[in-house]
Amino acid sequence: MSGSERMPEVKQEPQAPLLPGVVAVALSTAYLIALLAVEKQPLVIGLLAFGIVAVLAAHYMDWLDPVSRSFAEREGMLSAYAILAACVVAAFFHDNHFVLLLFVTVLLYAVATLGLNIEFGYAGVLNFAGASFFGIGAYTSAVLNTYTAVPHLLVLLIGGTLAALIGSLLLLPVLRTRGHYAALVTIAFALLLKTFLEVNDVLGGPQGMQVKGMSILGWSFNDNFEIGKIEMSFYLNYFVISMLLLCGTFVLVRRLERSWIGLNLDAIRLDETAASCFGLDIARWKITAFVLGNFVIGLAGALFGMVGGFVAPNNYTFADSLIMVSILLLGGIGNPWGVVVATFIVVVLPEKLQTIQEYRFLLYALIVIVVLLFRPEGLLPRPVRRYFPGGRA
Amino acid sequence: MDVGLLSQYIMNGLMLGMMYTLVAVGFTLFFGVLDIIKFSHGDVLTVGAFTGLATYIGLRSVGVSSTPLLLLAVLVVAILAMAALGMLIARYLVLPLRSAPALNTLLITLMLGTVLREMVRLFYPQGANPKPFPALLPTDSINLGQFNLRLDNAIMLATGVAIIVGLRLLLNRTKLGLAIRAVAQDEETARTMGINFTAIVLITFAIGSALAAIGGVMNGLYYNEINFGMGLLLGVIGFSAAIIGGLGSIYGAILGGFLFAALQTIGAVALPFASAYKDVFAFTVVIALMAWRPTGLIQEKISERV
Amino acid sequence: MSRTVRQLGLFFASALFVGALVATAQAKDKVKVGFIGPLTGGVSVNGIGGRNSAELAVKLRNADAKAKYEYELVVLDDECKPNVAVQAATKMAADKEIIAGATHYCSATAIATVDIYHKFGFPIIVWGAVLPDITYRNKYAEVHRVNGTMIDQNDANAELISKLGFKTVAVIHDTTDYGKGHNAYFSKSLAKLGGKIVGTFGVTADQQDFTAELTQIKALNPEVIYFGGLTPIGVRVRSQMDKLGIKAVFDGTSGIVSDAFIQGLGPLAEGALAFREGASTEKLPGGKFFLEKYAAQKYDNPPEAYGAFSYAAMDLILDSIEKVGPDRKKIIAELANVKDRDSIIGKITFDDHGQNTVALITKYVVQDGKFVEWDDSEYAAGKRKLPGQK
């Protein structure tokens, strides 16, 4: 009767079984290990064909439905399993430098694209300069590592902050424009930054700069180490920290999405006029999304600079920003899992399929066109927002 | 500064401005008619230039050597081919997406630009290397002190002006132009008036792409070289120019094109470190202009229905 | 689709999968050696020429019955861009199966990757990059080079210019370490001989429009324009010089010694100067042998200026592997002891920084669409004159 009475508990349906999700994770892990291990081209092609056939077959046999349901409802546990799976893959390749480097690249690109997701996917703020902010983070770690003795973890944070700060210089034009005008602002910035980095000798010019490897509390990340008698590639160090970063970002993005902040961002993206009628301060939320997104991108960039050991203006061009946008579109705008899956596909495929290495830009662009024409939601479309009073969404 | 030197700089600026304007006018036309930005316009320019080059090589290999004939053939083939390409793009990529959010069209044309660029790089023989473009215009020059007036530059400048004037006449004095302006103003009413919307859109894309083809050939003649990446920067600059001048207005596109060229030339001259920073300077000014006047110097009149 | 069909399909797919795994496990071992060069982009003819030459070395060795191992050449493209080179270098060096490599034509890429080769302990021999820093900035045991450095080249350049009576020079150089290196060494050499540099202009490696720089140069009115950069922008600078009516001598470096330079300019290339270390390929000790074998393979591209060096580098690697076996550390130790080793380019000796000395500098001038040695040309004989030559 009175308002202090609690709402009757909504009858919770029994939670979806964990098994389909676990099986999916296990199978994917085995497949990934196989894919990363094979070298010969015919084998790779065969494996890829098998993968596509298997997924299509599973789709036809309605096996994918229980998987997606268990992911949606038991996400916490499944995320833990996914992390475990990643560690298994890393352990399998513990002394293979190149595979680990590829893996770390995927992880960090996924983090950066998650940042882009916050801007694009949640708040609808166009950002065609994603690679530029990535580059800002990378250059920060290059400069700070070479000229100062700032502890490296702090360098990461500074990289992210700097990217966010420089991004905020663009805020005024971004806020005052919409649609294609806003696109122009970020595209102009992307071109501007690359040219600036190229002509600027202080930052190494077109030759770029070397970046010293990371070292935390005396543990140098660039030295191979051994556990017992087993030699481990030094990239495992970076793997651990990238994994931590990805998990942190993933949790952040998920939490953001489900919170009232995410709700506000969605409202702004879908219809600015209606949202402002409801009292939402458009400028404030766009700024929040843009700054936060760029911070994440910069953070990933700073770490990637240290992993690769080298930064150059040519790594952070407009074409690279377009790749990040393609990843986002391919995986499904707004869906963090989609981002992770799409990053794997976009980064690992050209490395494995040497024959398409040259054609990769063309292929990505074509795939995105096809996706936009026929399945604009992407591979893993963002599920409808769920509302459970008193429970997690 | 020496008058001759100043004239040389002005000439450089005018040539650049002319090429940017040709691209910017295309952007403005597409936007006016369909309210979309076709980001692949710059790369259509590249394809036009390469088509022209291929025509030249083809004709030379069968023994044609008369320069005016070659020039005519190069231009005609490039224009027709790009007009066809423009129409195809409109028909299959742009029109179907009219009901989708504007973002999708933007992305699809961006990706299409990448596709065109990569196809040239991968499928044209040795496409990744810059290719020499033949000098098909007379190359004599008149030396006025420090100022070297080349005949081919003068011809190109005059041609550019003629094209722009011709476009204005087309839009203002012909029935086709009337139809285009009607569609640009209000699609529904134009349809009610009996104008074939799809046909007009296709024709507009054809005209815009033809302009791009001319721009591409001109670029080739000016620099005596074309490469697969030339369209990207030109496209962005043309787009910026169209926006600075105000989308939807031909005068705005012209203004924007020459303004951008002026910014670049001033940047090259005034900044002490030669032309290295000119692009940075120009783009910074563009971003600042966008912050000040989001819809361009000649304001776009928009109203939004809620 | 009926259930049976689907199940059968899955079964076959799984069989394929298992078969694939089994096949991987039975891979044969070969000895892998690597090659990195610019296979695409503006200087690709040099990269492809170098690759063909390295391939030739491997083919000839595999055809040799006395060879202990079967060699496989792994080729990667560095696109003449430092960042791509770093990725390619990381990929090659991180792959434990590749024992050693012949790397890089572009100096910008070579200098960017030396630290990576050192990090992974991967022995390399540079075959085309001329920047001295590549071998001299650090003392890395992994890094060696068979071709010469740009110091001698620029000395010879300044000498010739002064001898011909030219006093004022404007310098255009690209802003990579390659161009900056040329600028530094040329300026020093010219200053020693009393020449004057009236202006220095840095341009980006992919710059299109040089009218701003050239208009300023026109006002300075130099007799010579020294160009420290590679062929693609060399072609553009020279043709835009003509458009602006600048009548100075175009003086280039080893970066423009390439057929692409002449093809790009046509008659405008006439009278351009260039220099490179080492004799022309025909005049090398093993030059005829190399050119014969190269022609027999019927490659689409010529070996270009540095093909012979690439062949020599790869041959040296193969010799070392034959001697000490496919072990990176042993190869590094072996290459440290290279003294007066015979090769098609002459005797190779690596100094304590891994650098081979190539004393001879060849001077070229473009005459009638070909690079002709200066001493053999009609310009030296006085029958033709360079622009502005008295």
Describe the structure in your own words:
The complex is a heterotrimer of chains A (393), B (306) and C (390). In chain A, a hairpin with a 2-residue loop joins strand 4 (225-227) and strand 5 (230-232). Chain A is 68% helix and 4% strand. Chain A is globular. Chain A has a two-stranded antiparallel ribbon. The relative contact order of chain A is 0.15. By secondary structure, chain A is mainly α. Chain B contains eleven helices and four strands, in the order ααααβββααααβααα. Chain B is globular and about 60 Å long. In chain B, a hairpin with a 2-residue loop joins strand 2 and strand 3. Chain C has 13 helices and 14 strands. Chain C has two domains: 31-148 and 281-359, Response regulator (Rossmann fold, 3-Layer(aba) Sandwich), CATH 3.40.50; 151-277 and 362-376, Response regulator (Rossmann fold). In chain C, helix 7 (177-192) links the parallel strand 6 and strand 7. In chain C, the strands form four sheets. A five-stranded parallel beta sheet of chain C has the order 2-1-3-4-5. In chain C, strands 7-6-8-9 form a four-stranded parallel beta sheet. Chain C is of the alpha/beta class and 390 residues long. In chain C, 44% of the residues lie in helices and 18% in strands. Chains in contact: A-B, A-C, B-C. The interface between A and C is large, with 34 and 38 residues.
